[in-house]
Design a protein that fits this description.
Elements lengths: L5 E5 L6 H12 L3 E3 L1 H13 L7 H9 L3 E6 L2 E6 L2 E2 L7 H10 L3 H16 L3 E5 L2 H5 L5 E6 L2 H14 L6 H17 L12 E4 L5 H15 L1
Parallel strand pairs: 1-6, 1-7, 2-6, 7-8
Antiparallel strand pairs: 3-4, 4-5
This protein binds 2'-deoxycytidine-5'-monophosphate.
2'-deoxycytidine-5'-monophosphate (DC) binds next to α2, α4 and α8.
């Protein structure tokens, strides 16, 4: 693809953003950037240092003493926390909750958004998160909001965790997801919202291919 194209995908946890974004990135041959992975890396550091992600002072300490970098190898995104590759450590329930907690703080968001904007400045990218269309890349060529029923989202996450050998119950996953939804949607700074110019897709009753078709209907139309 020659023309620069920037695609923003927002939505709640478990709606399928990552799966769809990775497939789109492969098919369109442009990089995929997960902004959630950056907040996850900060949550990991918080846990490692025994700090409290909900505490403003602790968040300031992390923000001022941490570097989060992203590198690509063979099309895969790796997250570097203070120079160390931590990608494989970021997808646990504890880190999901911690990322949602640490991401409410102003200083944390400002630092991460600056890096995210820089990435999209000179190249095509598919970026997913909670505030991509509203704050990070308001001028994106396409803004999508991917949603799904919370029980379906929790079931997807539950199946994923179970396949990794985690024996958390469905009820726990559902409870965590509802809490995360509330925090991500009601925080003061950059809450998850549906932008007026976003294309809303509901993946509740769609397969991955079905969701991809919906995306391509729009990307194809405007290209
Ligand atoms: O997309 P994810 O599940 O990896 O994100 C983890 C948490 O990080 C999410 O619950 C809220 C936060 N987040 C955010 O506040 N803004 C973003 N752009 C991406 C993630």
């Amino acid at each position: 693809m020659n023309k620069k194209i920037v695609i923003a995908i927002d939505g709640p946890a478990g709606a399928g953003k990552t799966t769809v974004a990775k497939e789109l990135a492969k098919k369109m041959d442009i990089p995929y950037f997960s902004t959630g992975s950056m907040y996850r890396a900060l949550a990991l550091k918080c846990i490692q240092l025994g700090l409290d992600a909900t505490n403003e002072k602790d968040a300031n300490l992390i923000a001022n003493n941490t570097t989060v970098g992203i590198k690509y190898e063979n099309g895969k995104q790796y997250v570097l926390l203070d120079g160390e590759n931590v990608t494989e450590l970021l997808y646990t329930d504890q880190i999901s909750a911690g990322a949602s907690q640490i991401s409410v703080h102003k200083i944390i968001r400002e630092k991460m958004v600056e890096i995210q904007r820089h990435v999209a400045q000179n190249q095509s990218v598919i970026m997913d998160g909670r505030d991509i269309g509203s704050v990070v890349l308001p001028m994106a060529d396409f803004k999508f909001y991917l949603d799904a029923d919370v029980k379906v989202r929790a079931k997807r996450r539950f199946d994923e965790l179970k396949s990794k050998g985690n024996n958390i119950s469905f009820e726990e996953v559902l409870k965590d997801m509802k809490e995360r939804d509330i925090r991500d949607k009601s925080r003061e700074i950059s809450p998850l919202v549906i932008c007026d110019d976003a294309i809303v897709i509901d993946s509740t009753n769609l397969s991955i291919d079905g969701v991809l078709n919906e995306f391509f209907k729009h990307i194809g139309e405007k290209k």
